[in-house]
Amino acid sequence: MLCDFVLVDAVRQQKFPCDICGKLFTTKRRKETHIVTHSDVRHIWKCDMCDHTFTRRDNLKRHMKIAHSHTPV
Ligand SMILES: [Zn+2]
Ligand SMILES: [Zn+2]
Known about the structure:
Strand content: 5-15%
Strand order of the largest sheet: 1-2
Number of strands: 4
Largest sheet: 2 strands, antiparallel
Order of helices and strands: HEEHEEH
Bound molecules: zinc ion
Structural class: alpha+beta
Radius of gyration: 18 Å
């Protein structure tokens, strides 16, 4: 059926990147299913100075240095 091919092609054009690893997915649902596999996601490090959140403590520490350099290192 020609209609099916058109539908599939339309879906393929949309890309949903994973927020954590950047992997691209063709559907939002696939992406959300994939994100669950990132076990670290359950532990979110939140910056005290702004609304930034990080999945790794290293990234938060680096952010603190760059964005809030007035804080003692
Ligand atoms: Zn990912
Ligand atoms: Zn911050």
